[in-house]
Amino acid sequence: MGIIPTSQENSRTPSAEAQQLWAKILDTVRADHPTIVRLWFEDLWPQDLDSGSLRVRCNDEFQRDHMERQCGKAFNEAARLASGRLVHVQFLGPNGRAGPSTPPRSARQLAINPDNTFENFVMGPGNRLAHAAAQAVAEEPGKRYNPLFIHGDVGLGKTHLLQAICIRIMSQHPDWVIEYVSCDEFTSQFMEAVQAGRMSDFRHEFRQVDMLVIDDVHFLAKRDRTQEEFFHTFNALYQTNRQIVLSSDAPPEDIPDLEDRLVSRFKWGLVTAVEAPDYETRIAIVQTKARLRGIVLGEGVAEHVAACIDSNIRELEGAITNLQIRAAVDGRPVDLALARETIAAPQREDAQASATMQAVLDAAIAFYGVKLSDLQAKKKTRSIARPRQVVMYLARKHTRHSLEEIGGYLGGRDHTTVMHGAGKVAELITSDPSFAAEIERLEARIAGDARG
């Protein structure tokens, strides 16, 4: 794996035919395969058209590898449609070569998505420390936070940070050797090496690297022989100041059946968590993911998606894909109407959604000592605004009313105000235990009213 610094210099100016064909291919791909389109496709340029092959230059090797791996079939189909001939699209690196200048040490390394840069990572309260630590490692590998251990649930950005480190380091140190594999792949290669009697090759591959990056290291659990080998690999790299970066779904001490000596070593550097994004961060994530795809979002779309999906980033990205496909099929803009048709708020369980709006209002009025007229008025004082936002949150969670209907009960407020208010309460619940207990008492009161 290596990156050669970008150069826009070409020995030949692309012909008018090559430029025109490339423009038609891009238009065809946008129409027929909208979900693979990225904004940086505009930065690719045709080098030449020769013997039925259109050679297209990429800005770095990550882009070239991504185009070959994820987009090759779509672009070749588009080339045949656009030209009416059997034209093949060949993607080149910035050095003008079709393949890496130095073959990767492992053909089974994880692929790196060129979108997963630090610049495209959206920071929020739940990932700020992990982002800062990852950047520090990328700037001074082997010197700060070694190892770096990032943990969190699925789809919260761990892999993005790991790949951002790889991309940044390879841009600054193109001659470095980085081994980036999943824990399962490390285990598989280890077992194959044992069975084939090639342990010296295996150890050379993993111990003679400049940086080792292992995704999902929690899969070391209950694998005694692999843990033993990984322990020695870790020591060999650490003692020579080689950077180690690990991700897991749990902190080291919570990984079941992980040897104490590995738990201890994983804590030698920095252990940091990534948490579920809050409402404002989810809005920013939706906007960023859409921008990378060249999607223009109508007013309120990002807010609607962020309000409907509060679990993880992968589901947010999946929602954007659904919107993109629906818009392309129907020939419509990605506006709020389309978003409401495509992405609905998650269905609540009957037990949760059985409360009435009146029960929610009565509980909040009694608990906070406010009047209904206050909740419906335009007052923005904290003593009124907070109970109003709590009503928005509880109504979304425990009733079947739409955002517009909830806003109607609260003085005719629009759906974005309701989404924002409910999001603020959800954020406070995760950060303030006393407030979370307050909400629990309110929910118990609402549940009691629903039963009674």
How would you describe the overall organization of this protein?
With 452 residues, the chain is an alpha/beta fold. It folds into four domains: 16-92, 2-Layer Sandwich (GMP Synthetase, Chain A, domain 3); 128-273, P-loop containing nucleotide triphosphate hydrolases (Rossmann fold), CATH 3.40.50; 279-342, Helicase, Ruva Protein, domain 3, CATH 1.10.8; 357-451, Chromosomal Replication Initiator Protein Dnaa, Chain: A. It has helices at 16-32, 61-83, 128-139, 158-172, 183-196, 199-207, 224-239, 260-266, 279-292, 301-308, 313-330, 336-342, 357-368, 372-376, 382-398, 403-409, 415-431, 433-451; strands at residues 45-50, 53-57, 88-92, 148-151, 178-182, 211-215, 243-248, 270-273. The strands form two sheets. It has a five-stranded parallel beta sheet, sandwiched between helices. A three-stranded mixed beta sheet has the order 1-2-3. Strand 6, helix 7 and strand 7 form a beta-alpha-beta unit. The longest helix is centred in the first third of the chain and has 23 residues, at 61-83. It is flat, with a radius of gyration of 26 Å. The termini are far apart. Residues 1-11 and 101-107 have low confidence and may be disordered.
Summarize the structure.
The chain has helices spanning 16-32, 61-83, 128-139, 158-172, 183-196, 199-207, 224-239, 260-266, 279-292, 301-308, 313-330, 336-342, 357-368, 372-376, 382-398, 403-409, 415-431, 433-451; strands spanning 45-50, 53-57, 88-92, 148-151, 178-182, 211-215, 243-248, 270-273. It is of the alpha/beta class and 452 residues long.
